[in-house]
Amino acid sequence: RAYTMSVSARGPNGMPSRQETTFHTVSPSNQTQVYFETTDGGLLQDGATYGVGEVVVAHFDEAIDNKANAERHLSVTTNPPVAGSWNWIDDQTAHWRPEKYYAPGTTVTVAGNVYGTPLGDGLYGEEDEHVSFKIGDAHVSIADDTTHMVSVYDNGKLVRTMPTSMGMGGIQTIAGTTFSFFTPPGVYTVLSKANPVIMDSSTFGLPTNSRLGYKESISYATKISTDGIYLHQLNSTVWAQGNTDTSHGCLNLNGDNAAWFFDFSVPGDVVEVRNTGGKPLQISQNGDWTVPWDQWLKGSKLT
Fold first, then answer.
1. Which of 261, 49, 37, 225 has the alpha carbon at shortest distance from 149?
2. What is d(CA 71, CA 254) in angstroms, rounded to the nearest whole number?
3. The pLDDT value given to residue 174
4. CA distances in angstroms from 17 to 12, 13, 21, listed in the order given
5. 232 is catalytic
6. pTM for this one?
7. Catalytic one among 95, 139, 232, 248?
8. Is 24 marked active-site?
C-alpha cells in the first residue's frame, strides 16, 4: 500500500512550514483471498434469505499454514446471538455452524478481516471480505425409511406428508467400480434447485450404458448433497413411493409433491434422513449437521 504523510509546523518566527513524503509498505511474496460460500461451492449472497441450517464456508484460495491466526480474523455475528464455531475441513477451508439450528428471523453477518494478516510461510491476507444474510422460516423435513414418508414441518407445524422411495441399498461392483446404493442417514440441508436437471450416472463413475446406468432429464429436483442426492419427481416409481426403496440414493416423489417441495424450499432448509442403511452422511457430502457438537468444536484451531 502507498501512504502519504503531511506535516505542518510553525517556527519561532511564526513562519509556517509544510513537508510531505510518500512511501510504500513491502509487497508480500504471496497473498490469499477469502471467499464466503455455501457448502455447494457457490458464493453466499449478500441480503439473501437462507434456511435455519445454513452453513458458512470460508474458503481461501491458498493453503493456510497458520490456521489459528486466520481463524482469529474470521467472525460470525448473529442477532439474536447463538453459540457457534469454525471447523477446519482442509488446509484451505473452514466451516461455521451454530450448535443448534438458527431461530427464524436471525440476522447473520460474516467478516473476514484478513487484510495484511500473516497466515504463515510468507502468506498474507489480500483483502477484507464480508457478507450478511437473514434466516427465514424453520423448514425441517424428516425422511424416515421405516415409513417411507417425508414429513415436512414449517415452523414446527406439520404441513405435508409425502410418500417416497429412497436408495435401494446394497454394495455393487459395476464396470470395475464399487458403488453404494443407500441413501446415507444424517442431517442434510437444501443446496440448490433445478427444473429440470440432467442426471447422468457417469458423473460419479457409473457408465450410462452399464447395468443401472442412466442419463435423463428430471423435473423439480431439490439438491441436498454435494454428490448428487435430490428430492425429485419420478413418475415411474410412484408404485414404490411409500412402500419400497428403488432408487440409486435420491428420494423419489410424485409430480405434485416434488413441485410443492421445490417451491417450498430455500437453500439452508433442513432434511433429516433416518433409518436407512449404509455409512452415515459425511461432511464432504454436506453432512456438517451430522457431526456431534463436541466433535465439531475439536475442528477449531482456537479451542
1. 261
2. 45
3. 82
4. 11, 11, 14
5. yes
6. 0.90
7. 232
8. no
